[in-house]
Amino acid sequence: MTRTHRLFQMMTALRRLPAPVRAQQLADELEVSVRTVYRDIDALRSLGAVIDGEAGFGYTLIEDAALPPLGFEDDELEALVLGLRNVTVIGDPALAAAARTALAKLTARVPPRQGHRLQHAILDARRFDPPAPPRINVAELRAATWAEETVSFSYVDAAGAASVREVDPLGLVYMQDTSMLLAWCHLRQDFRAFRLDRMDDLRSTGKSFRPRRVPMLRDYTARLRAEARARVPDHS
After folding, report:
1. Distance between CA atoms of 129 and 69, rounded to whole angstroms?
2. Alpha carbons 127 and 175: distance in angstroms, whole number
3. Which has the closest alpha carbon to 172: 204, 139, 150?
4. Which tens digits make up the pLDDT trace of 156-214?
5. What is this structure's pTM?
6. Domains of the chain
7. Is 212 exposed, middle or buried (0-12, 13-18, 19+ CB in 10 A)?
8. DSSP letters along 73-84, please?
9. Residue 89 to residues 81, 138, 197, 222: CA-CA distances in angstroms?
10. Nearest to 204, CA basis, from 145, 118, 158
11. CA–CA separation, 165 and 188 (whole Å)
12. CA distance 22 to 206
């Protein structure tokens, strides 16, 4: 491991590990001596990193807008490229455009060798049989979900029955053949999943269900996992 690579790894460890991070933790993480950790901390400080703490007490990386962006490993870049290209395929128009912009920014800001790898990436994402596009503005639905605002919409289920629903939106799930809204349905007084391509006339009600979204989503996903396990036959 080169010294430059080790310094990047130390920055990553300082961001990831609970602060304050003791020198011995960093030494174990990077497989170096504690003395090397002390020297590398001094080197990072000389390069502009704002690191609070000292030997014996641990270190805390103070986020600073003046710091240069962290470098990426080649595999990390490929993971980002694959994820962003997948979003351009499955995301709503606003999200797909944001993914393309993010990929362009990423390509422009990494070292030339890695920029070449991004421009000629070997990984890609495709949907050869995409689902029907949603009729609602999914960006508005995402905004309402983040704002924890109840929404209403008209819905047609698999049997063709139409209804008007008022729900607390909890999260969106993008799958191979469809995209779903996970929500608490006021009509059914239970969790429900709604296909985006069967929704229409999306409106915000202005009602807030803050701060219940995260625990509600956790409960719903736990139920979905339990139901999935129950469907798996036991061959023991």
Report:
1. 38
2. 11
3. 139
4. 999 999 999 999 999 999 887 889 999 999 999 999 999 999 999 999 999 999 989 99
5. 0.66
6. 3-62 (1.10.10.10), 74-119 (no CATH), 138-231 (2.30.30)
7. middle
8. -HHHHHHHHHHH
9. 13, 14, 16, 28
10. 145
11. 9
12. 48
What's the distance, Cα to Cα, between the start and end of the chain in Å? 47
Q: Model confidence over 97-132: pLDDT tens digits?
A: 899 888 887 877 777 788 788 878 888 888 777 777
Most distant CA pair in the chain, distance:
70
Helix axes 3-16, 34-46, angle to 10 degrees: 90
The 3-state DSSP class for residue 214 equals helix
If phi > 0 it is left, if psi is from -120 to 50 it is alpha, else beta; for residue 148 that is left
The C-alpha angle with vertex 184 and arms to 182 and 187, in degrees rounded to 5, equals 125
In sequence order, which residues have a C-beta less than 8 Å from that of residue 15 and are 6 or more positions away? Answer: 61, 70
Are 7 and 40 contacting, i.e. CB atoms less than 8 angstroms apart? Answer: yes
**Which amino acid is present at 26?**
L
CA–CA separation, 52 and 20 (whole Å)? 9
Q: What are the start-end ranges of the E strands in 28-129?
A: 50-54, 58-62
Query: Three-state DSSP class for 115?
Result: helix
Contact in structure between 213 and 168 (CB atoms under 8 Å): yes
